[in-house]
Write a structure and sequence with these properties.
This protein is mainly β. The protein has one helix and twelve strands. The strands form two sheets. It has a six-stranded antiparallel β-barrel. It has a six-stranded mixed sheet with strand order 10-9-8-7-12-11, with no helix packed on it. The two termini are 32 Å apart.
């Protein structure tokens, strides 16, 4: 099972066991009633075991402010015991991509080559959201290269061969 972090809850909401949930992606369609999710603690205040614990979504509102309810949590005192937490979802629960589409999560582990010279640069290690475009983190032998995920820097992604081709900025120094 490959789990993807979907967002975090750090506050309770109301008296019926709800959580103020901050999703990493505003598309809340994956957080449907009946969906099994893994919760992992974000600190020692949470009573969730460090390896995580499975819960089931009862309901989740959509939009910039998401209120999340879990079947196993029925009141405020229960919800206060498990916050703060991160919510993770099995990658298999994601909708099938259309031709030529992929999830950023699928880029992790791809070998990265310079688009023109074909010289190996490193491996995609992570990504994070940063304003208008996500930033891809590439680990080279000596250090990290972080590039916004835009066509100018990433002209070609080849998922079947697990390769990404980049055009780093002119001031790029070997990583």
């Amino acid at each position: 099972m490959r789990l993807i972090e979907m967002g975090q809850a750090t506050r309770v909401h109301g008296l019926k066991g709800g959580f103020a949930f901050r999703p990493f992606n505003q598309d809340g369609t994956l957080l449907r009633p009946g969906t099994k999710v893994m919760l992992r603690p974000l600190g020692p205040a949470s009573c969730i075991p460090e390896q995580g614990q499975e819960y089931t979504i009862l309901s989740a509102s959509s939009g910039p402010k998401v209120v999340l309810y879990l079947q196993e949590v029925s009141d405020r005192s229960q919800s206060e015991k498990i916050i703060p937490f991160a919510l993770w979802l099995d990658r298999k629960a994601f909708p099938k991509e259309e031709e030529g589409e992929f999830y950023l999560e699928d880029l992790i582990g791809l070998e990265v080559f310079h688009y023109e010279s074909k010289i190996h640069i490193g491996k995609i290690e992570a990504f994070y959201e940063m304003g208008s475009a996500p930033v891809i983190v590439i680990r080279g032998e000596k250090n990290l290269l972080e590039l916004p995920f835009i066509d100018r820097f990433f002209p070609h992604i080849d998922l079947p061969t697990k390769q990404a081709f980049v055009l780093p900025p002119e001031e790029y120094v070997e990583v």
